[in-house]
Structures are given as C-alpha cells and as structure tokens.
C-alpha cells in the first residue's frame, strides 16, 4: 500500500483493508491452482468440490474489494499514487477472479478423463502448473512490497510458460495421431493445459498492473530501458 500516511487515519485503515483483501484472495487462488491439478490427476472429486467452493469465496472477496474501492473513490477522491493503488486493486482482483475460474474449469475438464494418459503427459502439465504457481506467488509478493523489479521478472517468465504449453500441445497432438482412442483423453488434457497457460497470462497482467501502480507508466513502454539495463549487467 502507499507508504505516505494520511491526515485521516481511517483512510489508511481502509487502504490497509484493501491490501489484506487482495492478499486473502491471492492466497485462495494459489491453493486453487495446486488443488485443481491434484484433483485432475488423482481423480479426487472431493478436492474438485473444494476448488469450486473456494471459487465462490474468491467471488465474494472480489465483490468486497470492488465495494471498498468504489467507496474510496467516491469519498476520498484519491489522486496520484493513491488513485493508482485503488484502481490497481480493482484490476488485480479481476485477474485473481479469472485465475480462480480457470482453476475450476480445470477440475471440470479433468472429470472427463476416461483413459489414463501417459506419465510424461501428466508430468508436463504438473511442471506447467508449478511454473505458473511460482509466478503467482512471486507476483503477489511483488504487489505487497511494491517491487517492480520482481514484477518485471515475473512478466518475463511468461515466455517459459508459453514455450512449455506449445511443447505440450505438439506432444498431445502426436499421441492423438498415433492412436485415435487417445483423442478424447488428450483433448481433455489440452483444455486443462490451456487453462493453466491462461492463468499465466493473468499473472502477467498483475505484474503489469503493479508496475504501472508504482512507476505511473506501462511496463511494455519501459521494455527498451529494461533491455538496456539487462545488456549492461551481462
């Protein structure tokens, strides 16, 4: 949250509440991703239902964040960093809600798995899930600390997620062409993998939001400067 203190103490408390709600929402989203991947490959229907219940909690937290943010905009008339902070909370909450939706979709898709896929195919999605989960944890840390360097580092890691997803896509198509009986299961896996990849996209959105909140300029507009900094350090 903004480092400067305000004359009205209640304003600081409201901003702190907003920060805590984002943290709770992010923690739920982290658990959902981990639980969803386990539920899919362990055929754990109880865990899948737990993911669905968590999605409802995430929706409730998003509504609470939206209500508080709109109240702050109306009553406090924030400017500069305060305005960016409140608007960023709305955007981050929206991305976290979409992440939760993708986790629930994974469970729904996974329930359709009829034939056990090859171990390598399972391992690929699990690896993809670990990458995305680590990105989410790091971007939430970056949000809490206002750490733009970490936000940029997370943003750059999305390329690794895209590359792995592309590799899995080609691998699953190969299995489907080898044996038509594989089509159902590997089509399902493709949908699961796509949901994980989309979670990665929402994490990069959060990284961009953090950068704008702190720097007051879009992350993508800063990429030439970032490239120069990287070259100088090599």
Secondary-structure map:
Blueprint: H1 9-42, H2 45-76, H3 80-110, H4 119-145, H5 148-178, H6 183-215, H7 223-233
Helix pairs in contact: 1-2, 1-3, 1-4, 2-3, 3-6, 4-5, 4-6, 5-6
Q: Could you tell me the number of beta strands?
A: 0
Shape: globular
Give the strand content: under 5%
Average of the residue pLDDT scores: 90
CATH topology tier name: Methane Monooxygenase Hydroxylase, Chain G, domain 1
Order of helices and strands: HHHHHHH
Instruction: List the quaternary state of the chains.
Output: single chain
CATH 2nd-level architecture: Up-down Bundle
- Overall helicity: over 70%
Total domain units: 1
Distance N to C terminus: 33 Å
What is the makeup of the main sheet? none
Rg for CA atoms:
20 Å
* CATH structural class: Mainly Alpha
Q: Could you name the CATH homologous superfamily?
A: Phosphate transport system protein phou homolog 2, domain 2
**SS-based class:** mainly alpha
Question: Can you tell me the residue ranges where pLDDT is under 50 for at least 5 consecutive residues?
Answer: 229-234
Number of helical segments with 4 or more residues: 7
